[in-house]
Amino acid sequence: MFSKLMQSNFKETSQISKLALGRSDLRAESLLDLVAEGLVKEEDVDSFSLPLYTPCKEEVAEIVEREGSFDINELKVFEVDADPLSGNELLGNKDIAFNIYVQIAKNAANAARAVTESILCSHFGDEIMDRLFTQFAARLADHLSDTKYVKGQVYNIAISLTKK
Questions:
Q1: How many CA atoms lie within 13 A of 139 on its CB side?
Q2: Measured between alpha carbons, how far is 101 from 147 in angstroms, rounded to an integer?
Q3: What sign results for the dihedral spanned by CA atoms 133, 107, 142, 46?
Q4: Residue 160 CA: distances (Å) to CA of 15, 123, 157
Q5: How far does Cα 50 stand from its chain's mean position?
Q6: In order along the chain (164 residues), what is the average pLDDT of each group of 10 residues?
Q7: Is the overall model pTM greater than 0.70, yes or no?
Q8: Dist. CA 150–CA 80, nearest whole Å
Q9: What angle do CA 8, 14, 20 make, to 5 degrees?
Q10: Contact 89, 83 (CB under 8 A)
């Protein structure tokens, strides 16, 4: 589907780069929290679709090759350092209130907001954005704490394509 959508927007010599950011269903749960608080209508959540997909590198390559409209110039997976502090800074941090999971979640929520806010605003309005991403960060911090997140578990896929 990505290839079909992009094909219609390309000239013969066009080239694109796409960055895929992965996150879980915590955004949906955060929206449902806002429904429970009366800030969002349930039917608005039910009618919303966020066009994000987090495939593996091999799946991306296979889809592009099978569709056939593009040549892959480069396809890379890279680790994203989501930790707000280096290991030495973390070990030396004497602030008893500091929670590494909260800081990682805030960073991730800000990154997610940069990618998704315009889509969310067009459907839900901009009044809920601060509350939504605060809730998302809180849910993510809980999730990271529960799963004992280990540095280096966040990956991005970057792909450069040329139309055939």
A1: 19
A2: 10
A3: positive
A4: 7, 30, 10
A5: 11
A6: 44 38 68 94 89 81 94 88 58 61 84 89 95 94 76 75 93
A7: no
A8: 12
A9: 75
A10: no
